[in-house]
């Protein structure tokens, strides 16, 4: 419902949201899938066939042979880190601009998160900063395709191979994202990790996958880690190393299978609506949308030059809220390294292990570009596949009014 500037808020009715059916494509297919599992009486993946079928189908979709399904996106990253098998005090380089699920698995495996800075135009790891952070203790790099924008994984893979470390792609927000070489996100690194959480392009409520094109031994270790290191392909009930139970349920797998045929259409519609908004606001001073090439638009990020835009992300979020458009400044409230779990080494009892000797490094100023984006240069607008052109036009109109209001 687009109105004139003098007629009140641009929007008085809710936008579609991924938090319910208004912004999701969930229906008869998922209901049939869940019913099929319930009727089988096989809800556990050790006895049913849904999870193995899901792994095969998702692998075929991604063009990879090796897939392990698990219980969440965070557990997928934990599986990947565990597959690398770092020793206590070994280092894994990653970003401070992500969900905590990117970093917590590092600490859970008693390794040390090392934070590299990000590109100011994308919020994604800067390869030069990554390479400068590599030491003789580095075992892996975790790069995030933030908001579905493709990360420079080809360059990072070259850096990883040159230094003999593993590249893990966090693709939780990047279904359908295409990299600079045209590859699918998750297939350039040694391992790729996906999430089926509520807000992702497709969802089973929760769930995760680890994929690899050419690292079967890493994937085997990930599969073992997801199942208490119990080698079920043998007749021996034994546990080969310290690990957990991160198995996907048959209900999750069945819903994911029903969602997969919808994925290309979901990404297509998200892209088309995002490109419409990108074009509509291209002339607004100090506001720049994310690169469109290869992006799959988990959310719609805007990068702000406060001097040209007249204000920062907080000012724009407030102005947009007055027009009925929800937007989040900074994406997260603080860099991951400033959360108490890291900055105060709140880990195992009062030991601080494995961060006791390093947590002082997690301080303001560690990654200046990351901090500038979170503090005001980044604004994130929610996105989903069910936006109409009218929805996008309302968001564009609200951004235009906000630009006028903030700039004065």
CATH-level-2 architecture of the largest domain: 3-Layer(aba) Sandwich
CATH topology of the largest domain: Aspartate Aminotransferase, domain 2
Distance between the termini: 25 Å
For the biggest sheet, the summary is: 7 strands, mixed
The fraction of residues assigned to DSSP E strands is 5-15%
Number of helices: 14
Adjacency order of strands in the biggest sheet: 1-7-6-5-4-2-3
Oligomer type: single chain
CATH homologous superfamily grouping of the largest domain: Type I PLP-dependent aspartate aminotransferase-like (Major domain)
Elements, N to C (H/E):
HHEHEHEHEHEEEHHHEEHHEHHEH
- Share of residues in helices: 25-40%
Say how many strands there are. Answer: 11
Q: What structural category arises from helix and sheet content?
A: alpha/beta
| Count of domains | 2
Q: Give the C-level CATH assignment of the largest domain.
A: Alpha Beta
Based on Cα principal axes, name the global outline: globular
Mean pLDDT: 96
Our Rg estimate from Cα atoms comes to: 22 Å
User: Which blocks of ≥5 consecutive residues have pLDDT under 50?
Assistant: 1-6
Describe what is shown at a glance:
The chain has 14 helices and 11 strands. The protein has 408 residues and is α/β, with parallel strands linked by helices. β4 (138-144), α6 and β5 form a beta-alpha-beta unit.
